[in-house]
Every structure is written in C-alpha cells, then in structure tokens.
Amino acid sequence: MSEVIHKRDYSLLGTEGKLAEEKGLVSADWYTCPVPSKRLKELMKRKDGPALLHTFIWFVLLAGSGIVAYYAWGTWWAIPAFFLYGILYVTPSDSGWHESGHGTLFKTSWLNTVMFRLLSFMTFKNATVGRWSHVRHHSDTIVVGRDPETPVRPPVYYVLLMEFLRLNGAPKEMMKIFLHCFGRLDKQEREFVPVSQYRKVIWEARITMTLLLGVIVWSILIKSMLPVMFIVLPMFYGTALSYLITMAQHLGLSEDVLDHRLNTRTYYMNPIFRFLYWNMNYHIEHHMFPLVPFHALPALHKEMKDDCPAPYPSLWAALREIYSLLAILRKTPSYCIVRPLSDKARPYRFGPQDNQEQQKYG
C-alpha cells in the first residue's frame, strides 16, 4: 500500500528550513572519511598544468566538431554534427563551471576567474548567484528547505522529460537574468546571496544579456542561424548527456542526513565521459572534500573507497536504478536507497543524534 502523499516544501521560504535548523542540520558537522592529513594535503594541492591541458584538448575537440558542423550546415549531416558539437559544448562547460566556481580548477586565481566567467555565459548562469547557490548546496547538501539544488519529491515527470532539452530550466534562468538586469533578485536568491553581492549580480546579468542579444542581432544581420546555433542554442539541443550525469548525482538518495555517503553517488565512467565530466563522477569524494581538485579525485577515491558504498559500475547502472525509483517515488515520496557498507566502513551518520561514532574516531 502506498503512503499518504505528503508533499514537502522544497522552497527556501517555507517552514522546512526552520525545522532543519531545529534538528541541527544547518551548517552542521558532516561525516568525513578517515584520510590521513598528510595525504589529504597532497591531494588538495592545486596545479595549472592538468586543467590547462584538459581545457586545450576540450577546445580543440569543440573547434573541430564546430568546423564539421559548419560545413555540414544545410545537409542532413548537420543533425549528428551539431548534436556532437552540443554535447562537447554543454557537458564540459557545465562541469568546468562547477569546478572553477570552487576555485580549484587552476592554481592561478585569475585563470579560475576567467574560466568561471566564460563558462557562466556558456551555461546561462549568473556567476555570483550560481556560486552562492552552490555554496549552500555544499554546506546543507539535500537538506530540504535549505539546499536550493535538492531534487523535488515526488518528481514532476513532465519536467524531467522537458529537461532533456532544458526546456524548463533554461527559460527560467534567462528570465532570472533578465530581472537581474533591473536589480530584481527573487526571494529565494535573497536567502543565500549576500546583500554585498547584489551589485555584482546586476552587472553580470547586464553583460550576459548584452552578449546574448549581440549574438541574436549578428544572426539577423547576416541572415543566418549559425551564430545562434553555435553560441545560444547548444544549451538546448546539447544538454542531454549533462542532464543524465547531473540526475545521477543525488536523485533517490537520502534527505536530511549528515553523511554524503547517504545522499550522493559515486560511479565509474568510461574515459571519454569522465573527461567531459571533469572527474565529477567521483561525487561522494567531491562533496566530502570539495577543495580537492578534479585531477586528484581518482586518487582520493582510492583513499576513501573502503569507507564508502561500492561505486556503481557505470553511469548507466546508476540511471537504471534511478529509473526504477521513479515509479516508486510517485507513490512513496519518502522512499530512498541506502546502499550497504563493507565491514571495514564506519556506520552511516544519519543525523546530529548519531554522532558517537564520529566522536569515537575523532
């Protein structure tokens, strides 16, 4: 028998946030795997070389696919050509935006800033709003009423389908950026963006909107869709892989816990997908130690794996689990997967009350 469906308020403006605070879930001490401090310090070392090489290879692939798409324009070959270009445009830019927002992509600070600004434009994100939203996502991961990136339960299935072409999220983001141009942040954004950052939000939005309008005017003047196809529309037609990867991060896992092993997935990927995703498939590792750069996440995974649930063997294995969950969540929204730990692992930390094990090990 399905449970009586009680829809929780996933906004940051309702009572759930206050309840989370009363339960001790807000900005709390999270469980961390026992990685030796000397080794962790080594893994946290930032470098320019790996990201420069990664970015160079990505831009060469993007340019190459763009040239093929350009010459295929006007033929049926343009469909697969632009699909490939879109995947190469969106997936690395979304993941690279995330990593550069942490300031861990490069050792050199200005390189992180330049990359973050560029990728914010490419992904239709306001850089400052996105950065502060993600700070909250890390401090209160999947805490209902606190984390603006928490997957809603039960899932809205038509929205899930629309997001394969980003038909729900992109228009909303563009409307927000449009309103930012006039100094208007919505109430949820005001919950996590400091007042001191509002002016920066406004000017970022104005620059983004000017650039987007410039691309559209360029297309009109030359009477060709190509500028829009290469710069604006990839975030619609090329978003499928990025969306599937993002879906696998947290969907169907525990809410309101203080252990990233319970609310985050790590899964193995083939080398091509892992390159496009900047190693973010090691997502438990990233959430637990967010200052470890992308290039060191495989090594961090080796240090942590005995204390974590077994990784999913592939992205598709994680997605198969998620798809099987969708029907369950429709009838039983509170259902979540708790994966078994090995005998070597410490017990899960479900909340502030079960912190004895954490204190025992220090």
TrEMBL record:
The keyword Membrane belongs to this UniProt entry's keyword annotation: yes
Gene Ontology annotations for the cellular component aspect, listed alphabetically: membrane
Protein's UniProt keywords contain tRNA processing: no
Domain Fatty acid desaturase residues, every copy: 75-316
TM stretches of this protein: 51-70, 201-222, 228-245
UniProt keyword terms in alphabetical order: Membrane, Transmembrane, Transmembrane helix
Entry-linked InterPro entries: FA_desaturase_dom, Fatty_acid_desaturase, Rhizopine-oxygenase-like
Gene Ontology biological process terms in this record: lipid biosynthetic process
GO MF annotation list: oxidoreductase activity, acting on paired donors, with oxidation of a pair of donors resulting in the reduction of molecular oxygen to two molecules of water
CDD domains reported in the protein's UniProt record: Rhizopine-oxygenase-like
Name of the protein this chain belongs to: Fatty acid desaturase
Organism from which the protein derives: Paenibacillus montanisoli
Lineage: Bacteria, Bacillati, Bacillota, Bacilli, Bacillales
